[in-house]
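Aim 2, interim progress: modelling of the 2-acetamido-2-deoxy-beta-D-glucopyranose-bound target.
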Amino acid sequence: MKIYVAIAFISLVGCVSAQCNIPPQYWCDSLSVAQKCGVESACREFLNAEAAEPVNIELYFESLCPGCRQFITTQLYPTWMSLKESGIMAASMVPYGNAKEVQLSSGLWNYTCQHGAEECVGNLIENCIIHYSEDKFDTYFPILYCMEDASDPIKAAEMCVKKSDLDWDQIHTCSKGEQGNHLMHKSAMKTEALDPAHKYVPWIVANGKHTEGMQQEAQGNLLKFVCDTYTGAKPKECQSGIKFKQIVSFRE
Ligand SMILES: *[C@@H]1O[C@H](CO)[C@@H](O)[C@H](O)[C@H]1NC(C)=O
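Predicted structure of the complex, ligand included:
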């Protein structure tokens, strides 16, 4: 669309440079071609939007941690809602957090969770939801948000899954059995492979990196952080970053 706008503009102005011996449909293919053909400024925004990768946010968390629930409900959810259309943020969640695992003689894993056995139940359900959503954030996040926003995430799980296209019986069976046990072990390995190692939850990794500074920015105002980090042309939703209040972040 933008190419045609640029072309229409140029044909109106009628001042295509002599060095531009390329058909108009290729003028926005690269900045050097755009420069030769005198359409640099019109193509720059288009090229940026094409070239920039979405900001990749990974969240390491556990189902009953208050700071995780606060981050999910007051930052990740509204930011995802705002930026969904623009596609400038990619996200994923790893439900495990500060849990511990010990392998049993059966080959399965025995988990111990920070907020007790209930939290392990929540983590298992969430790992199964992610699996049956084929790891698609846009599919599983509304369900995990629904759980984390409820007064009791584990009691709410059935209702939250039933509001989605997933099958609660399948999720429930998964979470109680070997499949859930294996899925949670995958999350454990992912969490344990973090570099630097995680020291608390919620633990945020952006574009594969974690620093104390970026954690504070992302946890305090995720929309602003993603907009600031994104290297392409900023979508209009980035103008509304000030609407989100800086929150006092907590962690454990
Ligand atoms: C799993 O770990 C808990 C706490 O460490 C322990 O009480 C329990 O007996 C273990 N379960 C198995 C099956 O080993």
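The pocket of 2-acetamido-2-deoxy-beta-D-glucopyranose is lined by residues 104, 110, 112 (CB under 6 Å). The CA atoms of residues 59 and 93 lie 5 Å apart.
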